[in-house]
Known about the structure:
Layout: E1 2-4, H1 7-19, E2 24-29, H2 35-47, E3 50-55, H3 65-70, H4 75-84, E4 89-91, H5 95-99, H6 118-121, H7 125-140, E5 144-148, H8 152-165, E6 170-174, H9 194-199, H10 201-213, H11 219-231, E7 237-245, E8 261-269, E9 272-279
Parallel strand pairs: 1-4, 2-3, 2-5, 3-4, 5-6
Antiparallel strand pairs: 7-8, 8-9
Amino acid sequence: MKVFKTKKELKTYFEEFRSENSKIGFVPTMGALHKGHLSLLEKSIENNDITIASIFVNPTQFNKKEDLENYPRTLESDLSLLESISCDVVFIPSVNEIYTNTVSSVHFNFDGLETQMEGKYREGHFNGVGTIVKKLFEIILPTNAYFGEKDFQQLQIIRKMVEKTALDVTVVCCATHREANGLAMSSRNARLTTEEKEAATIIYQTLHEVKKKTEHLPLADINKWVIDKFNHEPLFTLEYFTIAEEETLKSITKISPKKNYRAFIAAYAREVRLIDTISLNS
Length: 282
């Protein structure tokens, strides 16, 4: 497994693969790797000639300084995990290597995708995401890039950024990898107590119940039911619940049989924020 810290070294290494038209798979991460990340990498390894992972805690996508400071950094164990699944290349740049002198975001036009859900609570977050992913795509020039379904809004944002900037990369959505109790795998899960991890089943269980209820209940009634369910769970506070159209991410009040929809939840256990989503069509 090759490990690179600079753009120059990485680009030089990949020249040979590009000249041979090899398929390059890419999984961007912020480290603190878990089985969810590894499932994305395994998908890339299966479908490409060479796979690269990046580990970079991106400062421009954090709204609060304390969240950036508290984000888990586990580089040594991350590299061991990547080596264990035969990842070919790892890129671990410094902040200065990526941003040079100015650590700031580019402003993107995401056609309103950024104003929904997460965008209402994390101002500027998606400009930070778009900035770092665009930079990494331009450095690595991957054929395919892999993202988890749990962060569905981020996935749609990245697809829109690729479309708007005409980058030649296929964005691949991969199913959410879950704990045995249904909790979506996330680097943030490490900050939960054992009791909170058990209680976190409320998120996935609620989404499953919502999927069933949309077959016979008005959405307003479902919304009230979700709020009441979280009000009775002392360890979790609901930040938002919404049912939205997949393409636009806009919340809806009525389901049409010709469109695809998802239910989304964001909730807190203390200061630990968790998100999840489920398709209502599949």
